[in-house]
Amino acid sequence: MSAEAPSEVLACPDCGRGFTAEERFCPDCRMPLVFAGVESPEPARDAAHEHARKIRPEFARGDLVRVAGGRNQAEAELIQNLLLEEGVPSMLRRSAGFDVPDFLAAGPRDILVPASGAPAALDALQEADMAPTDEEEYRVSGRHAMLVLGGIVLGGLLAALIAWTMLQAVG
């Protein structure tokens, strides 16, 4: 008995609708059809194959958008694996200004997902209490900015005083 005998019925693994052997993809879900009654899927060949099986195709469309950030590579990979368990594909990128190769695993990372998966990613992160916080918390107050500016000015004056003192001692 051949694997593609016309008497065998194919089914969509996502919605469960049945199809004839001539069909290859479900017109509604766009999922590849499998033989009806086959319970166990083929085992994963390697880690990349297992990773690809977890991704839901409807979350893999659109441009990449930033949904979260991690303080280092380990934290970013934790978020990335959390999203993968929800079926959302993601990728990591070093945050702007921290793309120096000497940092290796240190430095913040951005987690990027396709636009169609962004709402699901934000929901998953919110359920895990890892959702990004409002940017209001990170706004610099006027008082804090003045303190930093004052420190920079005092440091410059101190450096100028030391340079002037050294010139007077030499000359």
What does this structure look like?
With 171 residues, the protein is α+β, with helices and mostly antiparallel strands. It has two domains: 1-41; 51-134, Alpha-Beta Plaits (2-Layer Sandwich). Helices cover 35% and strands 13% of the residues.
How would you concisely characterize the structure shown here?
The protein has 2 domains: 1-41; 51-134, Alpha-Beta Plaits, CATH 3.30.70. The protein is of the alpha+beta class.
What attributes characterize this protein structure?
171 residues, alpha+beta, three-stranded antiparallel sheet, 4 helices
The percentage of residues in β strands lies in 5-15%
Structurally, how many domains make up the residues? 2
Q: Looking at CATH, which topology of the largest domain would you report?
A: Alpha-Beta Plaits
| Structural class category | alpha+beta
The radius of gyration computed from the alpha-carbon positions, rounded to a whole number of angstroms, is 28 Å
Give the termini distance in whole angstroms: 102 Å
Class of the largest domain, according to the CATH hierarchy? Alpha Beta
Largest sheet: spatial strand order: 2-1-3
Task: List the topology elements.
Elements: E1 10-11, E2 18-19, E3 34-35, H1 47-54, E4 64-70, H2 73-85, E5 91-94, E6 109-114, H3 118-127, H4 142-170
Antiparallel strand pairs: 1-2, 1-3, 4-6, 5-6
